[in-house]
Specification:
Length: 286
C-alpha cells in the first residue's frame, strides 16, 4: 500500500531537473487526488488507490520530460485568480502582474476611462484580472489564435466577467472596416511576443510553450513596432498604453515610442527585480 508521504518522497527524488521538486510533487499529487495541497500535507499517512498512483506517476513522467507544470495540471494562478491553461496559451507570469496593477490603479483614478483593449490576450489573464477589479470596464480582447481565444472565453465565464469582455480573432487590432470607431480605447494593454527568434530557439521554453506567443522576430520588437504604428489611431485623447517588455529592450522600445508619439509622456517602469518591464505612454492633454 502506497501512502501519500511515500509517493511524494519518491517523486521528489526523481524530479532532478526541478528547482522545487517537493513542491512540484505536492501540486501534481493534489491535482490527481482532487484535494488542496494543504489537505495533502495534513494527511501524509493516507493510502492511495492504484489508479491514483498510476495517474500520479504518469504526471510526474511528463514533468520529468520537460512539460511545464501548469499544462500538466491545467490551471495556474495569476493576480489571485486560478486560470484555466492549455498548451495553446502562454503560462501567465508574475512579472505581468505589474502591468495589471498599473492598469487597475490608473482606471481607478480615472473613472471616466472605462474602454480597454487587451492586445494578444492569450489566456485572458490581463483582461479578466482588470474586469474582476473594475466592474464597469468594457474590455476588447484580441488574439490571432482561435484556440487561445477559446481558453480566454472559458476563463471569462469561469470568473463571471464574460459580459464585460468582447473577444475578437485578429492580428493585434482590427482593420478599419470593423465596427469600432477610431480613438476607441482609453487604455491599451499588451504583453506581446518579445523574445528574439534566435534567442528563443536556444531556450528550454522553446517547444514547451506556444512559439506564436513568444517569437518577437529578429530583435524581439517586431510586434511592438506594428502595434505602436496602429495605436495612435485607436487611443482616445488623454489615453494610456501599457506594454510589457523584455528586460534588455528598454532603450530600443523607448526610442520606438518617441518616434511614434510626439505629444506624450513616456516612461519605463522596473519590476521587483529592478529590470525594465513596463513601457508606459500617456498622451498629453491638448
Amino acid at each position: 500500500m502506497v501512502k501519500i508521504r511515500d509517493l511524494l518522497d519518491d517523486a521528489a527524488r526523481g524530479l532532478v531537473f526541478s528547482d522545487t521538486p517537493q513542491l512540484d510533487a505536492q501540486i501534481i499529487l493534489a491535482h490527481v487526488i482532487g484535494h488542496p495541497r494543504t489537505w495533502l500535507i495534513a494527511h501524509l499517512e493516507t493510502p492511495l488507490t492504484p489508479p491514483q498512483v498510476d495517474s500520479a506517476h504518469r504526471a510526474f513522467a511528463r514533468l520529468e520530460a520537460g512539460e511545464p507544470l501548469p499544462y500538466i495540471i491545467g490551471h495556474w494562478e495569476f493576480f489571485g485568480l486560478d486560470f484555466n491553461i492549455t498548451k495553446d496559451v502562454l503560462i501567465p507570469r508574475p512579472e505581468t502582474e505589474l502591468l495589471v496593477e498599473k492598469a487597475i490603479r490608473w482606471l481607478t483614478s480615472h473613472p471616466e476611462a472605462r474602454s480597454v483593449a487587451d492586445v494578444g490576450t492569450g489566456s485572458g489573464a490581463i483582461a479578466i484580472s482588470i474586469a474582476s477589479h473594475i466592474p464597469n470596464a468594457k474590455i476588447f480582447a484580441t488574439d490571432i489564435s482561435p484556440a487561445a481565444l477559446q481558453v480566454a472565453k472559458s476563463n471569462a465565464k469561469k470568473f463571471n466577467v464574460e459580459n464585460q469582455i468582447e473577444f475578437m480573432e485578429c492580428d493585434l487590432l482590427p482593420n478599419s472596416a470593423f465596427s469600432l470607431q477610431p480613438s476607441a480605447f482609453d487604455l491599451i494593454c499588451a504583453n506581446l511576443p518579445y523574445i528574439p527568434t534566435e534567442t528563443l530557439h536556444s531556450l528550454p521554453i522553446y517547444g514547451n510553450e506556444p512559439t506564436l506567443a513568444l517569437d518577437g522576430g529578429p530583435d524581439g520588437l517586431d510586434p511592438y513596432r506594428r502595434l505602436l504604428k496602429l495605436a495612435p489611431a485607436w487611443l482616445a485623447p488623454n489615453g494610456k498604453i501599457l506594454l510589457e517588455i523584455e528586460s534588455t529592450q528598454g532603450a530600443q522600445i523607448l526610442s520606438l515610442a518617441h518616434d511614434t508619439f510626439e505629444n506624450a509622456t513616456i516612461n519605463l517602469h522596473q519590476d521587483l527585480a529592478g529590470h525594465d518591464r513596463i513601457l508606459e505612454i500617456i498622451l498629453d492633454e491638448d
